[in-house]
Amino acid sequence: MKKSDFLVELEDILQREESCNETDNLEDYEEWDSLSKMSIMAYYDKKFNIKLSLKDFKDLVTVNDLIALAGDKIQ
Amino acid sequence: MITFNKGQIYIVTGASSGIGEATALLLNELGATVVAIARNIEKLANMKANCKYPENMHIEIKDLTDDIEGLPKYVKELKEKYGKFSGMAYCAGISQIKPIQVVEFDDIKSVFDINYYAPIFMTKGFVDRRCNIGKGASVVAIASAGAIGCDPGMTSYAGSKGALISSMQSISREVVKQGIRVNCVSPTLIKTGMAGEIEMEYADGKYPLGIGEPDDVANMIVYLLSDKAKWLTSHNYVIDCGAII
Class of B9-239 per CATH? Predict the structure, then answer.
């Protein structure tokens, strides 16, 4: 998946009125909470067959860090 | 006194008859803008002809079971057309009385499609932050007292409503942080087109205050949609004239 496509999907998962950018700080998103993390986990599992755990989210800072969790599946 | 203003926009499904019609008419009478959804254009047009403020009553023809997974997108399209929603009353539904011996899978599926899957996916669309006003938004789904005190022959119907009550409670806890309230109203038999001959026979003598009218339920729904109910969420309110619970 292209990064640009993922950013649109992320906007939808988080139900954001504004677009998401690679360098955005996740903690700045009002929508970034435990439920949205669960939604991301479900999305990664279904879309990329990647099973994340909550500890994977612990050190995330930016959207780019989230993208990195998908390895080469988001380019 | 409960009042609304026309900037408060409410979705009402099943708005062409029974409880949905009574809810749409009452919301409109109290000043809200209503997006009234149903399948039957003649009945919807008739409902609109009877409303107090036709300029605040918008009708949308839609069979909610046509594309259930597409319902969140449908809600989004409605939001683009009308603006962010203050609430939704999900009143569409069907009844079915069939003893378990003759219940087929398709019977259960057809009941679950409109009584369970459609309200879940409409709610999924509604609670999307981009579709509602946030704090103060309210969802009310019509379940049934039959989900709690079940009569015979209600395998599909009672199951669908029981599932709806449980799911709505879970959803309510997901969205409470956004200030969205989610409740169910569970009426017993109400005098509507949905109440068939067998139901009416069951009901004979069962209700000390007589059989309920659509307005008896609509009043509760509108209260739950209003800011007067700002502290109420995550519950199922039984309206049964004391007959079942």
Answer: alpha beta
For residue A41, what is the domain's CATH number? 1.10.1200.10
Asked whether the beta carbons of residue B177 and residue A33 sit closer than 8 angstroms, the reply is yes
Range of the domain at A33: 3-73
pLDDT tens, residue by residue, B193-233: 776 766 777 777 788 888 899 999 999 999 999 999 999 99
User: B174 at the A interface (CB within 8 A)?
Assistant: yes
DSSP class of residue A25 equals: B
This prediction has a pTM of 0.94
- Number of separate domains in chain A: 1
pLDDT in tens, B197-208: 667 777 777 888
Instruction: List chain A residues with CB under 8 Å of B174.
Output: 35
d(CA A66, CA B157) in angstroms, rounded, equals 43
Rounded-to-integer distance, Cα B90 and Cα B93, Å: 9
**Are the C-beta atoms of residues B147 and B158 closer than 8 Å to each other?**
yes
Residue B57's DSSP bridge partners are B34
For residue B142, list its beta bridge partners.
Answer: B185
Nearest chain A CA: its distance from B129 CA (Å): 6
pLDDT per residue as tens digits for the range B136-148: 999 999 999 999 8
Rounded Cα–Cα distance for residues A18 and B5 (Å):
28
Q: Give the β-pairing of B181-187 and B236-239.
A: parallel
pLDDT higher than threshold 70 for residue A33: yes
